[in-house]
Amino acid sequence: MASNVNPTVRRRRLGQELRRLRELKGMTAEEVAERLLVSQSKISRLENGRRSISQRDVRDLCGVYEVEDVRIVDSLMQMAKDSRQQGWWHSFGDIPYSVYIGLETDAASLRVYDPLVVPGLLQTRPYAEALIQGALPEAAAGDIDKRVQVRLRRQERISDLENPLRLWAVLDEAALRRTVGNKQVMIEQLEHLVEMSHVPHVTLQVIPFTMGAHPGVSGQYAILEFPDAADSSVVYIEGVTSDLYLEKANDVQKYSVMYEHLRAQALNADQSREFIADVAKDYAR
């Protein structure tokens, strides 16, 4: 696969274009489903980019929408072909959050809040191994190793010299105090956070326990933004059996405002760096 083709992003862009064509035609997803003798849920999955789109699907939908411009049809057909290619993460087999990885791989910036653990992009290998083992007690050793490898591969976006991911992470103090692995693992992890906090395109902030209740008590989430204006921002909320992706402008706006409140209530970058270093010293005692 060409390095500049991200199948997840291709599916999203294609889905957005198909939705636009449907709305221009004044049709509902239910009406389209009835015309094509398929389920309404299939049309919805095609439009939100959660399902691979075949060239036949595109041809049939363009027929329903009466798209007469051959260039538009050919362009959509090519996008469908690209969307069925595989990203780097597919070489690791079945990854539950592969849709998210595809989005993260193409994102220009990521804002993440985590109340319980260090975000995956900032984890050391020992921390990641201990965390995944604890979270998935029945997982086989090979599956745990695969997940760790994927997590470390994702971190290459941070060190990419040509196209680094702009990362802003707000952590609750609980994520620093929770002993994952053992004290030595935590010392190395916290020292790594301090080191990463000096990276120009990485910003870390901590919300201490003394802050009390704050807008992030409802749980972890991430906001992804993309370099292409045609790609809408996405709010990602991780679940146990399924994940939630919010793309409606109103939903993204609400989470963005909540994130701004988190930033405002957290310690600033310098204070957070000192706070993390102090917690590391506590582990060393």
Automatic annotation (TrEMBL):
Q: Which GO terms describe its molecular function?
A: DNA binding
List the PROSITE patterns hit by this protein, alphabetically: HTH_CROC1
**InterPro entries attached to this UniProt entry:** Cro/C1-type_HTH, DUF5753, Lambda_DNA-bd_dom_sf
* Segment forming the signal sequence: none
Name of the featured protein: Helix-turn-helix domain-containing protein
- A Pfam family: DUF5753
Residues in HTH cro/C1-type domain copies: 18-73
